[in-house]
Amino acid sequence: MRNMDNEPVGSVRVLTPSGMLGAGWDHATVERGIALGADVISVDGGSTDSGPHYLGSATPKTTAKAVARDLRSLLTAAAGAGIPVIVGSCGTSGTDRGVDWVAGIAAEVMAEEGLDLKVARIYSEQRAVDLKEHLDAGRIHALPPLGELRAETLESCTHIVGAMGHEPIVAALRAGAQVVLAGRATDTALAAAYPLMKGMPAGPTWHAAKIVECGGQCTTNPRAGGVLATIDADGFTIEPLDPAVACTPTTVAAHMLYETVNPYEMREPDGTLDVRDARYTALDDRVVRVEGSRFHVADQYTIKLEGARITGYETMSFSAIRDPLILAHIDAWADLMRTVIRQRVGQTLGLADHEYDFDLRLYGHNAVLGDLEPESGPPREVGVMLLVNAPDQATATAVAKVANPLMLHLPTPRMDYLPSLAFASSPAEVERGAAYEFVLNHVVDCDDPTSLFRIETEETTRA
């Protein structure tokens, strides 16, 4: 393995092929990163961007074939170069099931390619009973906008994960892992782990890790592939892996605005990255040099908790409106629809308003911005989405079925005929199953950065 000992080095090169495992990339860009001297490959395997379903249900949003394709690209390249591969937040949300899912795919790829690699699985899922002990001891604290955590909230979660920092990953690497498959982790910890293990300074390392977290998003063409970060004692450089693409001071600096509350600071489990004094310099028309980044170690090490629970079961139906008389008074029509649905559900199903809920969204008219929509005037066409939530699937579907003729034929009070709208599918009611919500935005104080995580290693056998 190249650079896998613990001796100091002058610089470390981190190859990040994409912002997410399963998103796909041109393997030629990975080969170019290897040729440029990459010391480690890191890639994120998940996100909370797509909502709470994936954590609540412990299912991935990516397909196994796409993950296998990307892993084949990474594992064969890394094995040939003798460098490690780090994947974090496996299976989208980083649950134990997600780690095992990615590990199973990796094992199949390695067997097919005849690779002998030592694999470490780092599990980040938390038990409510253990977290209640931390809660009782006063070690769990809320992040805005949530308030004090109650034990009942922990018990209601179907899955809870802790977002690990770099330390568990470093522990796995030091134990000889060539492939690290981690549960939920901060996006930056994946790229920061190896450079920090090799003695690179925290300021440049965490800043570089932030810039490369989404692969080519810090370049002039985010779709073209990943990037290579070279970190040294004084700063770091960023280079795109596609020769036709460039990094500029603007594209690199702009990524500090991405998913951060403060464009100058970013909190990690062990401290805060501070880029107020960072300087971005174009070394040529493709490569950017960054210096001046600092890192302030926190007084208390903390691990962020993420948890999701079931809020009910959903059924959806969708119809489309092109009738100009309805569209001329679409808000009044929507208000009438809400009123009549409540009346009909009470009459036919005997349900009180608090026993179910629904959302009526007008796509093509304020569905995204709501009252903040700056445009005015009647829309040309509108898609009406009815989303019903109830304690069980049967009730949610029953409410949607009561609404069915209204979604198809409801006229406005000014119309003297019965309109016919257009359902998008038949049957119109689509059962979506359990719906989830995020309920944890808290941190737990930890004296040992690895105490909440479990590391398991295994050797693969060549087929």
Q: How would you portray this structure in words?
A:
This protein has 2 domains: 11-124 and 164-301 and 446-459, no CATH class; 309-438, Alpha-Beta Plaits (2-Layer Sandwich). It contains 13 helices and 21 strands. It has helices spanning 27-35, 53-57, 64-81, 96-113, 128-136, 151-156, 167-174, 187-197, 202-212, 249-254, 324-327, 330-349, 393-409, and strands at residues 11-16, 40-46, 85-92, 118-123, 140-142, 159-163, 179-182, 227-232, 235-240, 265-268, 271-274, 279-282, 288-291, 294-297, 302-321, 357-363, 382-390, 422-423, 430-438, 442-445, 454-459. The longest helix has 20 residues, at 330-349. The radius of gyration is 26 Å and the shape is globular. The protein starts with 10 loop residues before the first strand and ends with a strand.
Compute the gyration radius: what is it? 26 Å
Please, how many domains?
A: 2
* Beta content: 25-35%
Mean pLDDT: 95
Distance between the termini: 21 Å
Structural class given helices, strands, pairing?
alpha+beta
* Number of beta strands: 21
Numbering strands along the chain, what is their spatial order in the largest sheet? 12-13-9-8-1-2-3-7-4-21
Helical amount among residues, as a percent range?
25-40%
User: From the structure provided, what is the oligomeric state, counting identical versus distinct chains?
Assistant: single chain
How many distinct helices?
13
Unreliable stretches covering 5 or more consecutive residues: none
Q: What is the overall silhouette?
A: globular
The biggest sheet, with number of strands, parallel, antiparallel or mixed sense and barrel status, is: 10 strands, mixed
